[in-house]
TrEMBL record:
Domain DUF7379: start-end pairs: 229-347
Signal sequence bounds: none
Entry-linked Pfam families: DUF7379
The organism's place on the tree of life at top rank: Bacteria
Protein's name according to its UniProt entry: Esterase/lipase family protein
Gene3D superfamilies associated with the record: alpha/beta hydrolase (3.40.50.1820)
Amino acid sequence: MAERFISEQGNAITINTLAAPALEAFGQRSYLGGHVTIEETALPDSKINHPLHATCKTVYRVEIKEGLKDTHGSREGFAMNLICQEDEFFYSIQEEYLHLLDDGEVDDAELWTLLSPRVELPVPETVGGTHVSKISAGNVRHLLNRTEAEREKLAKRFKAGSLEISADAPEGSIQNRFYLVLNKFQESEETISSKGTSFLEFDGAGFRELEDGEVPDIPGDGLKRIAIIVHGLASRIREAYHELAIHLEREGYHVFGFDYLTINQPIADSGKGLSENIKNLRTKYPESEVLIVAHSMGGLVARSAEVVHGAEIDQLIMAGTPNSGSLLVSNQNLVRNLFLLGSLMKLLPIKSEDLRQLIVSKKLRGLDDLANKSAFISELNANDRLHYSKKYFSLAGHFEGAPHDLIVHSGNMTKINETHMPSIPVEKDHFGYFKGTGWHEPLDKALLYLK
């Protein structure tokens, strides 16, 4: 007998996209004695319907009703086994949380500060060309449960009525449902162009990718002032740094960008790639002055290029760089969920290969290096004495007056080995250093200081 598309055993439900869906009666169907219903649905106006580097294939609404018990007496005590093709992946998101994300009056960054993301991105095992993953009972509890304090915060900040988030919401309301989403990785021109490491030149209109080892002719006579933009974690050069490139060009710099993989590529490897491009520029333009403007993880890549690989950098401006490593990335499951959300909300211009590694790889070497006081961070800081000179400068973001930019604490941005570097506070969150109004003013102060 052919395997069923949706089946149940014990307190577990299995969805197998490799089985013939024709064997199932679609629409709404009940499982586990009527305590769980699964309904195929469509959300054309939702953010989840337009993922980066993927297409949304199928969305299921899963509802858990009263009476379902596991051995611990929990009504959410069931798991879901998920089987799909190698180019597909599942994730789940609480329905109420998705309503908040899709609501135009809810600020995404503010939402992040109020409650942990009600999203679960299971890491698959690859078996014979297929992905096998699981939404565990613990994952389900995280999706559906919410503390009273969280509900009160949401009710105070956002409209409670239409979103059903008031503290007295009845049992069995929207909070008992979540969506299970099946996506398929997409190969497009943009996806193919965002897979790996590259060096780019800004020509006033945009960035163009250079051939390996290519050093373009820089117009003008005399000293060549070169600026290299290095992006941060789960990002890429091009549109996200266009305004920064234009501003640096106006300040007299010939602007380049360094694109690299961030999720599963060791930071030292990225630093080596940046160093090789700087050395190529230095060889052709030995009297050149090299400025690096780096965001977040990019500051560690730039420091590695110089401290570990010997690149000659004249000035380094870091925005939101966790110089002692990040406590956040120590919890890789949380990072996976946050970055999945970031890609859905278009907050993160994550590369296609970084997204794929985030979804399918169990061990993420880039995140391991970025973690607080990792072996990489400890060795880099032990060997870096360059910040004692007038060389490094930190732009330290503060979100709504807090001593952090949502992601990195300001003290982590402004100190190396407990020694302060020149810095300036910026009223920006981690994703807004080079966006909005007035963003160039602290950068100009840093440039003036470093001259």
